[in-house]
Design a protein that fits this description.
It contains 11 helices and 7 strands. The model has no long low-confidence stretch (mean pLDDT about 95). Helices cover about 45% and strands about 20% of the residues. Strands 4-3-2-1-5-6-7 form a 7-stranded mixed beta sheet, with helices on both faces. The chain has a domain of about 150 residues: Rossmann fold, CATH 3.40.50.1000. With about 240 residues, the protein is an alpha/beta fold. Bound molecules: magnesium ion. The site of magnesium ion has 7 residues, from loops.
Length: about 240
Amino acid sequence: MDGSKLKVFVDFDGTISTEDVGDAIFREFGNPEAVDKIIDDLNKDIISSKQCWDLLCKCVEKINENDLILFIDKMNIDPTFKSFVNFCEENKIDLFVLSDGFDYYIKRILDREGLSYLKYFANKLKIEREKLIPEYPYFNPDCPVSANPKQFHIINNSSDDDYTIYIGDGNSDKEAAQYCDYIFAKNSLLKFCERERISYWPFNNFDDVTKRIKELLSKKRLKKRHQAQIKRKHAYEAE
Ligand SMILES: [Mg+2]
């Protein structure tokens, strides 16, 4: 199998970063009780992720940008991610970072790690007069549960000839992962796949992913996931 036919889509928070940076920022700078309640409501599907981010940004009364930057700079990424990126480059595998979090910290962390050239799609965050202002350039009213519905980026950046791979850990990956032929899952995405009987490969870190993709590449051809093809077909027809 030729690596250039593989398209890999990877979540940021909790997948590339070791902890959920978005949540951590609001827990640090917002009222912790209010923040916990908002995130809990999101996890219970009581509010959408766009509503969640709007509420979280509002609950930070005042933020000092230098403090925010110092906090972000303490956030780590999975130590095996960089060698996975190199592996993808060596094999001409296209890699996209898809996040329902914010460009503000993703850009800063990727820059710090020497990975600023990676393609990513995320919500936007600005600081104006010590207030956090979110923007959702990819919001789509057809999919109001996500602020940045990841499946549209998957559809826009792959073709019928490609074999698509999703790597994720959580809530914002549930819908998107179903559009891909192969899913690497951990934490709540793994539980979701179990519950919904969606086939997946469990992983702890990117070394596990690299090892498995090497095995996939050694095959002559890869069987696409039928349910993913149906989802994609419906999405193409809707456009
Ligand atoms: Mg995540």
